[in-house]
Design brief:
With 169 residues, the protein is mainly β. It has 2 domains: 130 residues, no CATH class; 37 residues, no CATH class. Helices cover 12% and strands 39% of the residues. The protein is built from 2 helices and 9 strands; from the N terminus they run βββββββββαα. A hairpin with a 2-residue loop joins β3 and β4. The model has no long low-confidence stretch (mean pLDDT 89).
Length: 169
């Protein structure tokens, strides 16, 4: 877990501190599949600005996640540019919008914040390419490599009893 002790910064209202921090991320698990960030420790640009009544945090990073395509199970990568902002008022009640969930005991949890920011930007499906055809539902072959159809496919014999019931009604 990568975190920053905010007490050591000693910022006064109006002051801004900028730094780049390497943040280690755990792999993402989506739909039972593992997606790894590369590199494992991402450089994150962080800006901390002290204002009257609180602190404003800005985070910027570029991430590349790689893992299986959600349609054909081939290799897929997604590149993301993330920009996030948080406000923290230490006098606000827990659960209040003015209090950041990433600041606990005057420590900013960069790993959790970066991970959540990436998760919010992930596409609905991670694909090897937008026009991925996926796998054949009958034989399981990759339709990108071997496009085909199964002609003359009959009714599944397990449904035969229901077929006869339909004829009687």
């Amino acid at each position: 877990m990568t975190s920053i002790d905010l007490r050591t910064l000693g910022l006064r209202p109006g002051e801004v501190r900028q730094q780049t921090v390497d943040v280690e991320l755990d792999p993402f698990v989506l739909g039972g599949q593992r997606y790894d960030a590369s590199p494992n420790a991402l450089p994150v640009d962080l800006e901390i600005a002290e204002i009257s009544g609180g602190t404003v945090f800005r985070l910027a990073l570029e991430a590349r996640l790689s893992g299986p395509c959600m349609r054909c199970l081939g290799h897929a990568e997604v590149e993301l540019r993330i920009a996030a902002r948080e406000f923290h008022d230490p006098s606000a009640d827990a659960g209040d919008d003015g209090r950041s969930d990433y600041v606990v005991d005057d420590r900013l949890d960069l790993s959790a914040w970066a991970r959540d920011a990436i998760a919010l930007e992930l596409p609905e499906q991670i694909l090897c390419r937008p026009e991925c055809a996926g796998l054949c539902p009958v034989c399981g072959k990759d339709l990108n490599v071997e496009p085909h159809e199964h002609a003359g496919r009959g009714l599944d014999p397990r449904w035969a009893a229901l077929e006869s019931l339909r004829d009687r009604l």
